[in-house]
């Protein structure tokens, strides 16, 4: 029996490229990253709005569009959906600070072929974009882990194997019992972390300094016995600290 047919993996051209981003510093970062991958600066266009992106895409052909989620006149998810409807041959890659499940899945359902986080350094973004150029569908590792965790919690668990009578209990902490009590401020910061906000954004939202945010975050990590934002959110939901 012959193997089932598989879809061809299509490479992506990183030039010409369109950057849809409203932060000037991030615009320059992405210009630089694309230039390290062989992109000609004259063939890299930049706009900071959904409307501007639609006009440029209608007027020019692009090998790839790098899209932020939060834009002044709309959502990058809407732009990706519009792109799929009007220019399905132009791939879109999200590069954003947003990391909530709703946004991630909305962007992927709309047609994004990759989801990368702004917090990564230039080299990591470059490696991810190179993978996309070669036909991959690059997802930031923390995003991929969240997707796997989400899938694990939405699937019916398989029956566990029988445990020998002499075996110790698998987990000494009850599922609904947090390992340590969080303060009201720590719970608020944890909620903002789950929404994908950066330390700077949380500081502005709560009218506190970034140093204070970092101190609260370290306390949250210590109390939940975790080492990353993703693990903190996962454990918080597991213990009923987040909906």
Describe the protein in words.
Helices cover 47% and strands 10% of the residues. It is built from ten helices and seven strands. Helix 2 runs parallel beside helix 3 (76-86), helix 7 packs across helix 9 (210-224) and helix 8 (199-206) packs across helix 9 (210-224). The radius of gyration is 21 Å and the shape is elongated. The chain folds into two domains: 17-148, Rossmann fold (3-Layer(aba) Sandwich); 184-238, Orthogonal Bundle (Arc Repressor Mutant, subunit A). It has helices at 24-36, 50-59, 76-86, 101-110, 122-133, 141-154, 184-194, 199-206, 210-224, 229-238; strands spanning 17-20, 44-47, 64-67, 70-71, 74-75, 92-96, 114-117. Helix 1 (24-36) links the parallel strand 1 (17-20) and strand 2 (44-47). With 243 residues, it is of the alpha/beta class. The protein has a five-stranded parallel sheet with strand order 2-1-3-6-7, sandwiched between helices. A two-stranded antiparallel sheet has the order 4-5. The longest helix is centred in the last third of the chain and has 15 residues, at 210-224.
């Amino acid at each position: 029996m012959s193997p089932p047919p598989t879809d061809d993996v299509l490479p992506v051209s990183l030039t010409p490229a369109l950057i849809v981003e409203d932060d000037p510093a991030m615009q320059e970062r992405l210009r630089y990253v694309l230039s390290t991958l062989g992109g000609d600066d004259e063939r890299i266009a930049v706009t900071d709005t959904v409307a501007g992106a639609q006009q440029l895409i209608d007027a020019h052909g692009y090998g790839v569009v790098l899209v932020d989620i939060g834009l002044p006149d709309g959502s990058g998810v809407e732009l990706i959906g519009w792109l799929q409807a009007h220019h399905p041959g132009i791939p879109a890659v999200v590069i954003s600070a947003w990391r909530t499940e709703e946004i991630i899945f909305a962007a992927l359902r709309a047609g994004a072929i990759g989801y990368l986080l702004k917090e990564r350094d230039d080299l990591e973004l470059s490696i991810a974009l190179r993978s996309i150029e070669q036909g991959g569908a690059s997802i930031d590792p923390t995003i991929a882990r969240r997707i796997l965790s989400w899938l694990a919690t939405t699937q019916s668990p398989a029956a566990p194997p029988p445990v020998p009578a002499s075996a110790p209990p698998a987990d000494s902490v009850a599922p609904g019992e947090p390992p340590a009590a969080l303060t009201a401020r720590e719970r608020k910061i944890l909620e903002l972390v789950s929404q994908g906000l950066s330390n700077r954004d949380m500081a502005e939202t709560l009218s506190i300094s970034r140093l204070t945010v970092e101190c609260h975050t370290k306390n949250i990590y210590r109390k939940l016995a975790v080492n990353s934002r993703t693990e903190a959110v996962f454990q918080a939901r597991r213990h009923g600290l987040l909906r």
